[in-house]
Amino acid sequence: MGTFIQLVVDGLATGSVYAALALAIVLVNQATGLINFAQGGMAVLSAYLAYSFLQLGFPLLLAILVAVVLSFLLGAAVERLLIRRFERGDPDTAIVVTIGLLTLVTGICGWLWSYNNLQFPSPFPLSSVDVFGAVVSVRSLGTFLATIVIMVLLQLLFLRTKLGLALRAVADNPVSAAFSGLPVGRLLMVGWGFAAALGAIAGSLVAPQLSLTPGMLDQALVYALAAVILGGLDSPIGAVVAAWLIGVLENLAAVYVPFIGHDLKIAVPFLLIFVILVVRPQGLFGRKVVARV
């Protein structure tokens, strides 16, 4: 029983890493209707910015805060100068552009800061606590709680604020939103800015656990995309729950399913995607899209 609880707790901690990135992907999709494959690279770049401010003598929380603000401006600039040229065209073209942006950002990080592992300090203590017989690091617990707070704030943003409703309207139908008087271009910039700022927070939470490298979030991005598909592209809660589910199930499968083991546990989220898409194509918490004909 103790092993089971430990696997579940570790899975929730790992899933929180995926969830932090998945929330940023959901935010971009809700604001622009696109899936941003460059989200992981932008989060890593933000973590490197925070690391640079730390080297200049900034306190940790201030360094992260400054990186969040700069990331917001960077995300807005990327949307205005690059993504906007492709938003009105074929969605597949815009997706390819984000993949190219991921490669570019990763290369820039390697060029400026090298590909060596860098130690990024954690905003949480490095001690551990006992939870139902399982050993949990305070750092993992802090990431878990921070993910919950961000999830709730995003859900409130999209469902309870005028800005969130405006972002969703622009993503669903930018033409109708423009006729309604909404500043479509400005809202798209704000959406990308918020996603980049959220990525900065995610990068700062993940970097102490994985060590800071240009490819730090490459594997996490795969799991985050799986969580977004499983949970629903329009549901922050769904993305987080799916990320936790992936983290827990792959841990349990690695130990309790002999033919999977640790080598094949990466197949678990893809098996979940297959099952969920067959049973519920819009995801666990996603909305059905009804098109008038």
TrEMBL record:
One of its GO terms (biological process) is amino acid transport. Keywords: Amino-acid transport, Cell membrane, Membrane, Transmembrane, Transmembrane helix, Transport. This is Branched-chain amino acid ABC transporter permease. GO terms for molecular function: transmembrane transporter activity. The chain crosses the membrane at residues 6-27, 60-82, 94-114, 134-158, 190-208, 220-246, 266-285. Pfam families: BPD_transp_2. PANTHER family: ABC TRANSPORTER PERMEASE PROTEIN (PTHR11795:SF451), BRANCHED-CHAIN AMINO ACID TRANSPORT SYSTEM PERMEASE PROTEIN LIVH (PTHR11795). InterPro entries: ABC_transp_permease, BCAA_transport_permease. Signal peptide: none annotated. It is found in: Cell membrane. It is a multi-pass membrane protein. GO terms for cellular component: plasma membrane. It comes from the Bacteria. Belongs to the binding-protein-dependent transport system permease family. LivHM subfamily.
